[in-house]
Structure prediction request, 148 residues.
Amino acid sequence: MGVNVDADAVVCEVTVDATPETIFGFLTDPAKIVRWMGAEAKLEPQPGGVYAVDINDKALMRGEFVEVQANKRVVFTFGWEGQPIAPGSSTVQIDLEPRGKTTLVRLTHTGLPVPARADHADGWNHYLARLAIAVPGCDLGPHNNNLA
Prediction:
């Protein structure tokens, strides 16, 4: 797993033992996304569609889908309901790059204020590690949704 916090973006990467076709559903299907991130989700994976993931009852991730390329890329706006980083105020792009029998998942988060970048890098690394475990079918058990 890798992370880079530079002047413009937070970039996190993880290699997952699955194809892009398998991973894509974990980015766009509400029942699958909560297996690795959040407790509840409403997703409408089409440009302009809702992107809403409730990490817990205080951390409510909100935005909308900007781009959806099946098995290749998902882009959505991002923010937190009722918090300084407002819904839709930043952008997350997730690219799926096949690497033989595995896939490199690269998440690029732009538009975050500088003071928030390190915390969001930690959060995304936490969730990408969970994604790498959940996609191959491992049961992660109850999630401690205290991040916020």
Notes: The longest strand covers residues 60-69. The two ends are 22 Å apart (CA to CA). The CA atoms of residues 15 and 104 lie 4 Å apart.
